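Why do we bother with a discrete structure alphabet at all? Because it lets us treat a fold like text: something you can write down, compare, and reason about line by line. To make this less abstract, here is a complete entry for Arachidonate epidermal lipoxygenase 3. Read it the way you would read a sentence in a foreign language you are learning: slowly, and without expecting to understand everything at once.
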Amino acid sequence: MAVYRVCVTTGPYLMAGTLDNISVTLVGTCGQSPKQLLDRLGRDFAPGSVQKYKVCCSTELGELLLLRLHKERYAFFPKDSWYCSCVRVTAPDGTCSHFPCYQWIEGYCTLELRPGTAKTICQDSLPLLLDHRTRELQGRQDCYRWKVYAPGFPGIIDVSSFEEMETDKKFALTKMTPRVDQGDSSGNRYLPGFPMKIDLPSLLHMEPNIRYSATKTASLLFNAIPASLGMKLRGLLDRKGSWKKLDDIRNIFWCHKTVTSEYVTEHWCEDSFFGYQYLNGVNPVMLHCLSSLPSKLPVTNDMVAPLLGPNTCLQTELERGHIFLADYWILEEAPVHCLNGRPQYVAAPLCLLWLNPQGALVPLAIQLSQTPGPASPIFLPTDSYWDWLLAKTWVRNSEFLVHENNTHFLCTHLLCEAFAMATLRQLPLCHPVYKLLLPHTRYTLQVNTIARATLLNPEGLVDKVTSVGRQGLLYLISTALAHFTYTDFCLPDSVRARGVQAIPNYHYRDDGLRIWAAIESFVSEIVGYYYPSNMSVQQDSELQAWVREIFTHAFLRRESSGFPHRLCTPGELVKFLTAIIFNCSAQHAAVNSGQRPLGTYPDEHFTEEAPRRSITAFQIRLAQISREIQERNKGLELPYAYLDPPLIENSVSI
């Protein structure tokens, strides 16, 4: 008689426990155990509980390959959800096997788990395990389906697929909900107190392992509802006219004061702060260094000489690398929206900036269109105060449109959704890249589904409050993706390509490169452990399918993008993974700002010592970066904390 000790941990989350019967079957190289009901006196699987059981077998099973969890009806109780964190099994000889689960199990079903040791497909040879990988991925691909949201968009998740899946026929378990016709336009409707329509049907279906936790949902509601209610009571949500004076805006936001908001209130109209925002504001990726002026911006030395002073000239400053351009070309043909019956206006400006001898970046000239001529004057700091201020205001308006639609929503939210989808569809739970990326894709599918239901839907918030509306958003995102490159995606390459290595006080660049280096070092250790050679990368068919799917659905097979569609070396894999993790965490924090900190891995998907040591070293390095940032910020009039590691979310989740 061989006795195996089984320890089952239920997650500590709200409603994580179950009243259903839970049984277990152990599968080893020498056979499998009988199906054993896990039952002790009292409730077995309460939230946060750790319960121990014995499974008796006639003979030892050899090396454990799989553990089957069976969830079945108990008496007359209705079926419920159970969050199983992990199962540990101790063999008769004392060998301990860890089976990570960390997922919701719904309905009555059987879930197969593998030991926690990460393995690529090349490291599996047993038909049983190869078949397990195939069945797992087929189930996921049936559950997580691609959908085209709009022409030129990255692929998104098709939430309607969740309700179609039968729980006992799929590997990735989902919550079943009553069917709602996705083609029913009446689902896109106004709700009391909301000024825009909300696509309700799309919010009803969300696979439980990718939706917000109860804690996350409560946190969002706690922050969002009072803010929305406050704006409603103060008339902001229903306002249809123009602002009459700046004090009106201050009165709206009087209860949301921060060090940054107070600083902006005092300095927003100053040229030095205008330039500072290109370095450390919410869109710090616009600047390109110029060696010569583009023909579409005919600025002459005489125009800018009063600002440059007598000891230099425009050509000299160009040669020194002190002249920079922010070009909003993408807005030139953007559709324009109507709000409250009034046509709106959009500028496509060219903003020339100068790095002065004091180390401050200041605007030098502004042209509000892409076509020079009498109808498109060049505005200068020597113009009247109000003309110059109005020109800068138009630039900031264009900055908002490019930042929110492209830098923020496209380059973090939509691309990270595509990474999450490809990871779920092409990499099994035991794959090392799946384990690595899982914390950095958590909640992304949920938050993007909410965004499409409330912001991007017809007559949603984008249609109600922006000058380009939904059609303009679709145009901007598709146009931006058509021009987006791998160089843009990788921070060190982007900094070099834009020629902004030497600008002082560029905290986004400095902090971002340190975070990038820390992620790269961590990823290099993980990749080096599982991929010791070029051949190990090239022969991993699951990895190659994953990168191909990203190339196909995120970047629409555009060869000119420079994104890989095949990985040939560990170095290529390290760079790609580093860029994905950076953009899913630090870049999103920089362009969205401030929950679960970068480097936090509460679920123990990696069970081997080597990757666990790498995680610890990564966390130590991030802590050191945080101390350095906080020390630097003590000497800054306006602290830059967007890339302080404790303030960087692990994933795009808000």
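What the structure line is telling us, in plain words: Residues 214 and 505 are 41 Å apart (CA to CA). The mean pLDDT is 88.
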